[in-house]
Amino acid sequence: MARKTEPSRSVTMRDVAAEAGVAAITVSRALSSPDRVSPHLLEKVQAAAKKLQYTPNIAAGTLRSQKSRIVAVIVPTIAHSIFAETIQVMSGIFRPAGYHLLIGHSGYSLEEEESLVTAFLARKPDAIILTGYTHSATTIDLIARAEVPLVEIWNIPDEPRDTVVGISNFDAAQAMTRLLIRKGYRKIGYIGGPRENNDRVEQRERGFAAALQEAGLEVPERGIVRKPLEFENGARALTELLSQNSELDAVFAASDILAIGVLMECQNQGIRVPEQLAVVGFDDVGLASYTSPPLTTVRVPREEIGRRAAQEVLKRLSGGSTEPRIIDLGFEIIERRSA
Amino acid sequence: MARKTEPSRSVTMRDVAAEAGVAAITVSRALSSPDRVSPHLLEKVQAAAKKLQYTPNIAAGTLRSQKSRIVAVIVPTIAHSIFAETIQVMSGIFRPAGYHLLIGHSGYSLEEEESLVTAFLARKPDAIILTGYTHSATTIDLIARAEVPLVEIWNIPDEPRDTVVGISNFDAAQAMTRLLIRKGYRKIGYIGGPRENNDRVEQRERGFAAALQEAGLEVPERGIVRKPLEFENGARALTELLSQNSELDAVFAASDILAIGVLMECQNQGIRVPEQLAVVGFDDVGLASYTSPPLTTVRVPREEIGRRAAQEVLKRLSGGSTEPRIIDLGFEIIERRSA
DNA sequence: GTTTACAAAGGTATCGTTACCATGATTAAG
DNA sequence: CTTAATCATGGTAACGATACCTTTGTAAAC
To answer: What is the pTM of this model?
Structure first.
C-alpha cells in the first residue's frame, strides 16, 4: 500500500494558511471556532483546507492546549452486552461533539484498572469514566491529581466523589425480592456474580438479603451461589442450589445472563417455571422478553446511563458545574411470566 | 475534586532529569529503551520518575516521533457480542504492548465509516483495523495516503489490499447448507441480515444459494427474508417465512442471533425442532449451546480473529513484511441437535 | 602503547498547533 | 469629533517529547 515516493511531509496548518493567503493562527481559528473569523476568510480557509486535503494533527494541538478531546472509559469487560451497549451509546454522543473514546477493560481487577488509568492519563484525557465506585486509592488519587473530571457509572454511592450516573442496585434488588415475597414465595435462593471489586453485584446481594430480613424470612441454608456471569454458570448454579435445597420455590439471579442460564436448565430438567420454581433476573437484556417463559426482571436504564454520563461530561467540559453530584436514573420492575 | 492551588505545571521529563542528575534525553531513553542506558543511571532515572510521579506526555512524543501508539478500530456495531468479543481480545493484546485502542462504530454505513476514518486519522494512528472489505473509495484512499497499515477482519476478499484476517463467509455458509442438504432437507428457507455494506452477510447468502444450486435445489419462493440482527427479528422472520411457505423443512439463519429468535418462536408456536423444522445458525455465540434444542451452527473463530489481527499489527509495526496477505482462520461446523 | 570501534551520555533543533499579546480597523458612545 | 470599546487578524513563543548529531569514555585489536 504505502507508496514510497518522497518523505511526503504532511500538510500542515501553515500550508493551508499559505494557500489561503492568511496567517496560520487564522486557519486554526477558522477550523476550531468558525464564528471568530469573517465569513470571507472562513470560506477561503475551508477551500484551501479541502484543496490540500488538510488533516489537523491533533497531537500538536493537544500538546499546546492540554486538551486531547479524548474521554477514557474503563469497564470490567467489553464482552458483556450491557457494557457494550453503554459504550456504544456514549460513543454515539461523544463522536459528533468531536471527542473520541479510549476504552479499556479491567477484568474486575482493581490493579488492572489502576494500571489502565495510569496509562490513559498519559494521554491527557479530558475526562474519565469508570464503572462502579470501588477503585484503588491510587486510582482515585491519580485522577484527582491530574484534575481530570471523573464520572462513575452504574451504581450509586453514599457520597459522590465527583459525578455519578447510575441506579441504586441495592434498592432495585430489594424491590425485586419484595415482589417475590409479595407473590408468596418463601424459600428464595440467590445466584449472583463474585462480589470482589464489583459493587453492583455486592449491592444487589445486600438488597436481596435486606428484603428477606425485613419480611422475617431467612436466606435458605446454602441458598447463595456466586459464579462469574455466564449462561452456563446460571445453569450450574441452579443445579448446585437445588441439590442443597430441594424445596426452593424461587430464585433471584443478580444478572439476566445467569437467569437465562437458569431458565434453560429448568427446561432441560423439566422444571416448570414459575409453577415449580419462580425465576427472576436483573438488567433486562434484549433476550429476556423472548425466553420461555419471558423473564421477570429489573430494567436498568443502561442506554440512559451511557447517554447521561456522556452528556454530563460534555456539559462539564463546556464549563458546567464541578460540584459532586449523583444522578439517579431509577429502575423499573418488569413483570413478565417467570414469577 | 479539582483543587485550586496553583497552575500546577505537570512534571516533565526535564524535571525527572534534574532530579536524577542526567540529561532529559537520557530519561527518554531510560523509559522507552531501558537497555540503551547503563544500569546505574537507569535505576536513578526510575527512582526519580517514581518519586516525582512522572507521567509522560504522549502527545508530545507523538508529535515528535509521528508514532501515536494508537490503533483505530471500526466495527459496524459495538453492541453485538461478536464484535465486542473481538474488540476485547484485541484490547487485551494491544495493552501490554503499550498500544491503545480507539474504537468507533459505523452502524453499517460507509459514509459514517469514512467520517470516522477521517477523524481517527487526525490522531495519527499506527494502524487501522476495519471490518469487512467493503469500504468507500475515499476511505481506502485516505488510509493509503496516510500510509497507515490496514487490517481488514472477518471476511476474505479475492485480492487483499493489505492484511486480511478472517474466514470465507461464502464457504462457511455453503458448507452449512450442504450439511442440511446431506441430511435430507429440501425446502430450505433463509433468514439473514440486510446486505447493504455488509459483505459478511452478503457472502453468507451467496454461499447458501450456491449450495442449493449445486444440489439442483431451488430457493423456495419468497424463501429469503432479511432483517437486522436482533432476536425478535428472527422470530418475526420465521412467521413471515412460514406464512408464505407452509412446507418448509429447514431454515438457515445467517446469524445465531436470528437463529435463536427462530428457536424461541418455534417454542412459542409449538413447532418441534428439528422434527418439523430444522434450524441452523452462524457464529456459534455462547448461548447457542444452551438453547433447546442446542443450535447447530458455524463456529467462527472470532477470538482468534481478534488475536491474529492484533498480532499482525504488532508484527508489522516492529518491522514485519508489508506484503498484502490473507490469513484465513477457517471455520468449523458444529453439529448439535437443531438439525 | 597507539589506533580503532563501540557504547553511553549529552546538546540542540524540531514536530504542528494554540495561547498570549499586539495591532489596526470598525463601530458605539459621549 | 474625539475617545473608548469591540472585532478581526497577525506575530511569536511555547507545549514536552524524541531524532539527529556530537562528545566522551572504555574496551578491543594490533
So the answer is: 0.93
